[in-house]
């Protein structure tokens, strides 16, 4: 069966794609939905002076707000209706997943199948609205305190502006959450990931142009730009290799006799990914580090002295920031991996269906072995994520590279691209299988 699937995958071509009408509809739906999202990133909030906002943001774009704006696709810099982007949804989903490992009620919902998954998704939606309301109110308060050389960024500050801003920003996040779910159900790929992906990719041409402009003016040497391009290519290649890397554990099934026939005796592999946690650790670690700096930015320097000190220590390129960033990535790598993969449960499922790892007794011995292998893989995965995420921090602080080329953004772009391509291939493969089944039925009917 595996060889037949590989042969079909090798035969996928443009002719196969042209005949897959369902896949083409899904791709067109995805593209139209992403265009709608990009148009929304240019609709400004009511009551905002866009010129003053651009001036204020230009003073802070090298900091933490600039990094957040990369994920928002420029919506934060323009302070549009999608300024919060989909980040409250991601934070809410992470919180729900983390609580599922502590709460027996939520853990029971995870085991209920489709019905339990729907309830967890509903909790995530409620959490998204709650977080969006809090963040939107914080942004409305912060905007009223922002001033440029030409005056305040808000035309008419007050209660009406705050209410309008909270409703608009929360509504924008809820709309993006719905749009992402529609892309997942009726399009190709994961909708939430594609929304973030499109925002990052949209900023790449401007970032590339600004880098080349710095090279033209002599701020960056041509040799350094070439080295930078080679380095980016190497990082992308490393990400692709590491994201596809997996440890395959041999699983054997014993032979069983049923009547006069012998069944079983087969062997398969249990794939354990090198980076089981994906891009969650960098996102969550950076979110925690964003919190004090974002609060300090919104207080416009009127906050307590200790907050200013923390903001300075947690600036880009600072040793404390890098240390806490790497520590957070390592911690969440192990924490999230422990949530998504349970060695005891996996060992019990193998034992239930008669499978066993050669040389290991079913049950606790197998669970200990899986835990041992997964721990070693997670160490390598955490080191890989830390290296990829800390590299752009060094480039920004030491050589003044003007865009955040690596870290979480590059991980998301490469991972989402690989996932979307694999889903397209799966749809094409399913289409070919359907064609083969129809041909076999027609031949059978003729006979």
Number of helices: 18
Largest sheet: 2 strands, antiparallel
Subunit organisation of the chains = single chain
Question: Distance between termini?
Answer: 26 Å
Number of strands: 6
Shape: globular
Side-by-side strand order of the widest sheet: 1-2
Structural class: mainly alpha
Which regions contain 5 or more consecutive residues with pLDDT less than 50? 1-11
Mean pLDDT: 79
- Percent of residues in helical segments? over 70%
Task: Describe what this molecule looks like in 3D.
The protein has 447 residues and is mainly alpha-helical. The chain has 18 helices and six strands. The strands form three sheets. A two-stranded antiparallel sheet has the order 1-2. It has a two-stranded antiparallel sheet with strand order 3-6. Strands 4-5 form a two-stranded antiparallel sheet. Helix 3 (21-40) runs antiparallel to helix 10 (159-186), helix 13 packs across helix 15 (319-340) and helix 15 (319-340) packs antiparallel against helix 17 (364-399). The longest helix is centred in the C-terminal third of the chain and has 40 residues, at 407-446. 31% of the residues are buried. Mean pLDDT is 79; it is low at 1-11.
């Amino acid at each position: 069966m595996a060889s037949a699937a590989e042969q079909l995958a090798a035969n996928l071509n443009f002719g196969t794609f042209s005949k897959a009408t369902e896949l083409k509809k899904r791709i067109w739906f995805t593209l139209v939905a992403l265009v709608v999202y990009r148009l929304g990133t240019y609709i400004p909030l009511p009551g905002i002076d866009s010129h003053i906002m651009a001036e204020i943001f230009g003073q802070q774009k090298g900091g933490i707000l600039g990094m957040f704006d990369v994920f928002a696709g420029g919506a934060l810099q323009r302070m549009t209706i999608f300024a919060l982007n989909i980040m409250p949804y991601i934070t809410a989903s992470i919180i729900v997943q983390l609580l599922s490992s502590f709460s027996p009620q939520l853990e029971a919902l995870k085991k209920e199948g489709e019905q339990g998954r729907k309830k967890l998704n509903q909790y995530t939606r409620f959490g998204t609205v709650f977080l969006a309301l809090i963040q939107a109110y914080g942004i409305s308060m912060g905007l009223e305190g922002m001033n440029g050389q030409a005056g305040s960024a808000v035309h008419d500050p007050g209660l009406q502006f705050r209410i309008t801003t909270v409703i608009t920003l929360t509504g924008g996040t809820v709309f993006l959450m719905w749009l992402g779910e529609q892309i997942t159900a009726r399009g190709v790929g994961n909708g939430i990931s594609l929304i973030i992906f499109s925002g990052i990719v949209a900023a790449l041409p401007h970032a590339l142009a600004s880098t080349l402009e710095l090279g033209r003016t002599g701020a960056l040497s041509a040799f350094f730009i070439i080295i930078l391009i080679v380095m980016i290519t190497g990082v992308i290649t490393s990400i692709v290799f590491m994201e596809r890397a997996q440890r395959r554990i041999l699983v054997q099934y014993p032979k069983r006799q049923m009547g006069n026939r012998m069944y079983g005796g087969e062997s398969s592999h249990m794939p354990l990914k090198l980076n089981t946690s994906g891009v969650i650790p960098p996102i969550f670690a950076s979110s925690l580090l964003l919190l004090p700096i974002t609060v300090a930015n919104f207080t416009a320097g009127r906050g307590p002295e200790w907050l200013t000190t923390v903001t300075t220590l947690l600036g880009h390129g600072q040793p404390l920031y890098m240390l806490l960033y790497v520590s957070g990535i390592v911690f969440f790598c192990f924490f999230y991996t422990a949530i998504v993969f349970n060695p005891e449960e996996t060992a019990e499922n193998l034992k239930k269906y008669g499978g066993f790892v050669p040389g290991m007794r079913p049950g606790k011995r197998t669970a200990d072995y899986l835990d041992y292998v997964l721990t070693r893989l997670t160490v390598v995965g955490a080191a890989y994520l830390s290296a990829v995420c800390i590299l752009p921090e060094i480039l920004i602080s030491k050589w003044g590279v003007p865009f955040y080329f690596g870290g979480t953004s590059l991980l998301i772009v490469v991972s989402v691209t690989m996932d979307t391509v694999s889903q397209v291939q799966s749809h094409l493969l399913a289409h070919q299988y359907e064609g083969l089944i129809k041909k076999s039925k027609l031949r059978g009917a003729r006979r």
